[in-house]
Design a protein that fits this description.
14 strands, 7 helices, six-stranded mixed sheet, alpha/beta
């Protein structure tokens, strides 16, 4: 499996390109602020052909370049219905500090939806990969985690890749104090969809370094029973 990633923009949000192999069709996950040129360069370097854009949620740092990428290659983009509004009204998902930075980032630019916008339902098949769409609200109502089987991991101890967006990070979780965030809902997501992830899953988060589910289950303070009110871990 081919994977490439880079942090983009002032919020340093991770953008990913995933394909069965180099030189094949690929999917772009979370192209955020200033992500278009790095996507183009990565595509050219590895002979990739973008055929879809997947968005883990609607915050501007994850979607700012989604329309540019999708429309440049004439491909569809997917997002959860609950976060669709942020594609055209990014300020609705930000607090006061974020709104101030938004003006510096976008200037007079206005955002629009991709020409071919689709809404996540149960799963997506694109670029030869099958993604399970796991609804995981709390950080935003439209947060999803995207899980796909890992092809050809040479170590043999990981079998799944999960693009966790801003739900689960290495050693932390997404904040819940911005508009649309809900800490109680996040706790339910952690107890359910997050703890239900396989220990053999590689976690590719929206910010920061990659990690593994077995490591997060054992060491992430937000996944421990004392934080989750007695929830058990496997």
């Amino acid at each position: 499996m081919f994977l490439a990633s880079f942090p983009a923009g002032p919020w340093q949000a991770n953008c990913y390109l995933a394909a069965v192999d180099a030189g094949r069709e690929c999917v772009v996950v979370d192209p955020g602020v200033d992500a278009f040129d790095p996507v183009r360069i990565t595509v050219e370097q590895h002979g990739l052909t973008p055929v879809g854009v997947l968005l883990t949620h609607g915050h501007i740092d994850h979607v700012a370049s989604a329309t540019a990428v999708a429309d440049a290659w004439g491909v569809p983009a997917w997002i959860h219905q609950a976060d669709r509004e942020l594609l055209t009204d990014p300020a609705a998902g930000l607090g006061p500090a974020g709104r101030g930075l938004l003006g510096q980032v976008l200037g007079d630019e206005t955002l629009s939806e991709p020409a071919d916008l689709r809404l996540f339902e149960t799963g997506v098949e694109v670029a030869g990969l099958t993604f399970e769409v796991i609804h995981a609200p709390g950080h935003r109502p439209g947060c999803v985690m995207l899980s796909t089987r890992l092809v050809g991991d040479p170590r043999g101890d990981l079998d799944t890749v999960v693009f966790s967006g801003d739900v689960l990070f290495a050693g932390s979780i997404g904040r819940t104090d911005l508009p649309g965030g809900d800490h109680t809902v996040m706790l339910d997501t952690l107890r359910g969809p997050v703890l239900e992830l396989s220990d053999t899953a590689a976690i590719l988060p929206g910010h920061g370094p990659q990690t593994r589910m077995d490591r997060e289950r054992a060491t992430n303070p937000y996944l421990q029973p004392n934080y989750l009110g007695g929830a058990t871990t496997r």
